[in-house]
Amino acid sequence: KDFPPGPRAIPVFGNLLQLNLESPLADMEKLAKRYGNVYSLFIGARPMVVINGVQALKESLGRQRCFLLGETKKPNGQSCRSTHAPGVVLADFGPCWRDHRRFGLMILRNFGLGKRSMEQRILGEIHTVIKVLDESVGKAMDPHLLFHNAASNVICQVLFAKQFDYDDEFMTFFVSLFHETSKIINGRWGMIYDSIPMVRSLPLPFQKAFRMFKAAHERRLQMLAESKQTRVPGKPRHFIDCYLDELDKACASLTVNRRDEDSTFSEDQLCALILDLHFAGTDTSANTLLSAFLYLTNYPRTQERCQREIDTVLDGKDQVSFEDRHKMPYVQAVIHEIQRKANTVPLSVFHCTTEDTELMGYSIPKGTIIIPNLCSAMVEEGQWKSHHEFHPENFLNDQGEFVKPEAFMPFSIGPRTCLGEGLARMELFLILVTLLRKFRFIWPEDAGEPDFVPVFGTTQTPKPYRMKVQLRGADMKNPNQTSSSNCD
Ligand code: HEM
User: Fold this and answer.
1) Which residues does the record give as heme binding sites (predicted)?
2) For ligand 1, atom 42, which residue shows the shortest CA distance?
3) Residue 345 has what DSSP assignment?
4) CATH class of 16-477
5) Ligand 1 proximity of 28 Cβ (cutoff 6 Å)
């Protein structure tokens, strides 16, 4: 009674067959038009409630007690990880999640988030990206792996104090793990696995994800063993050392007053947490950067206007700093508009009601899976000057100042909001500004029409594309080299 309305479900499949599982987003938009901003779906026998639009998202995700991440992902997440520890992204609301979220945030801050050192790490990584782009000057190149490698290396510096060569086996293994499994876990195979238990042991694509996660677990155990052998307690070099220091503290309190059973820290949980941070910190930022260059090459006037603002603000400076963003309202607006259009994590991470609750007049029982449709807010009519077009002015007021509407929520909102938002915003700004200052990016003549519709997954990825790279100083020698596509 009073459960949100939705399409009629059929036995075994629920509403699965009514959704285009390649990308259910368009179907979900149609269902919201028909049933309203809070509607229900059955994926297999499991009831789910889809939340759409700014108001319903704020009312649900913003709550402290209900709508926190729950059991949804557990079967899938646990077997994927090859460990029983929940990590943080898929952890139930409770002490383990709270302790590890707090710990993760503290380590990111201590390793320089908001301070200069994280900035220096990102800028150091950009040098490698520039080297790769320098080698491609005058040619059309496929940027797909480049940004995954760069984003992975930024987070690897925090986790392992290591920067890998882009062709290093560790790097190629993890980048393909993130790239491939993000499509399997939350694409159609993930939905089928979650909702139809009888297919779980069949040789279907999710078995590949399990194999890859098992291999990843072996590598994390190896990293852990190496760190344990070489560490000096109390002198942490990286995230793993900090965590091991924390474990030492828990063991010490065990000897003193046996309070250690309260501790949620364990080596298993460390392995799960490393994977969470590495995965979440790579695929999201990299795919947002890929979307950025897809738009910038096809909106050359927008690209040029960014470059003019960058040239003016950085005149005489060696390199950009994160503080400079306050003097670059147009660049900020473009980055935010790219994130709005990219919809990198369109359905956030599924949540679950932790108790019986009410939302917008509907009753939702404890244990119901909640799908926060973040992209519904990003294209909601009435929230934006132009909700369907690529339009950086969505983030500028009449005085040309940068403003952020409340409907902008690519990092989700509420207590489970993205833990890496600060790092991601720093990466996007520093990487885009540095590259736009040095290079011009052009849509190649033979590339045909751009396809802005991404490949659906936990994280969405632009379809493969190539871009031509030109040194900006060389513009004058080659004045006719313009993008063959001009959408602005
Ligand atoms: C453009 C880049 C990024 C986007 C769009 C993004 C988006 C998101 C979203 C939508 C969630 C789900 C929040 C929810 O459950 O309501 C999330 C969670 C999370 N993200 Fe990100 N993210 C990005 C970058 C990063 C980075 C760089 C890191 C790593 C440091 C990171 C770490 C995490 C973690 C650990 C969580 C789980 C938080 C929790 O459950 O408490 N993310 N992110």
Assistant:
1) 418
2) 420
3) S
4) mainly alpha
5) no
Residues whose CB is less than 8 angstroms from the CB of residue 261 and which lie 6 or more positions away in sequence, other chains included: none
What tokens appear for 461 in the block? 């990825």
Instruction: Name residues whose C-beta falls within 8 Å of residue 479's C-beta, 6 or more positions apart in sequence.
Output: none
Residue nearest to atom 19 of ligand 1 (CA): 418
Cα of 418 to ligand 1 centre, how many Å?
3
d(C-alpha 384, C-alpha 282), whole Å: 29
Q: What does the block give as tokens for 418? A: 């993205």
Do the beta carbons of residue 16 and residue 43 sit within 8 Å?
yes
Q: What is the pLDDT along the chain (488 residues), one digit of tens a residue?
A: 799 999 999 988 889 888 887 888 999 999 999 999 999 999 888 889 999 999 999 998 887 544 444 443 333 333 344 456 788 888 888 888 889 999 999 988 877 644 558 899 999 999 999 999 999 999 999 998 999 999 999 999 999 989 999 999 999 999 988 877 777 766 667 777 767 777 777 877 778 888 888 888 888 889 999 999 999 999 888 999 999 999 998 777 665 554 456 788 999 999 999 999 999 999 999 999 999 999 999 999 999 999 999 999 999 999 999 999 999 999 999 999 999 999 999 999 888 887 888 899 999 988 888 899 999 999 999 999 999 999 999 999 999 999 999 999 999 998 889 999 999 999 999 999 999 999 999 999 999 999 999 998 888 999 999 999 999 975 544 544 667 777 87
**Angle, to 10 degrees, between the axis of helix 329-342 and the axis of helix 421-438?**
120
**Helix (H, G, I), strand (E, B), or coil: what is residue 8?**
coil
Q: Which two tokens stand for residue 141?
A: 């190149």
- State ipTM: 0.99
pTM reported for the whole predicted model: 0.92
What are the structure tokens assigned to 477, written together? Answer: 């020698």
C-alpha torsion angle, residues 474, 479, 483, 488 (rounded to 10): 110
Edge-to-edge strand list for the sheet holding 439-442: 140-141, 467-471, 439-442
**Distance from the alpha carbon of residue 417 to the mean position of ligand 1, in angstroms:** 7
418 is in an annotated binding site: yes
CA distances from 223 to 149, 159, 163, 229, 340 (A): 19, 10, 14, 10, 36
- Whether 42 is in the pocket of ligand 1, judged by its Cβ within 6 Å, is no
Atom of ligand 1 nearest to the CA of 101: 41
423 lines ligand 1 (CB under 6 A): yes
Nearest CA to ligand 1 atom 18: 418
User: Where in the chain are the domains?
Assistant: 16-477
119 lines ligand 1 (CB under 6 A): no
Look at residue 357 and give its three-state secondary structure. Answer: strand
Q: Is 274 in the pocket of ligand 1 (CB under 6 A)?
A: no
Q: Is 347 in the pocket of ligand 1 (CB under 6 A)?
A: no
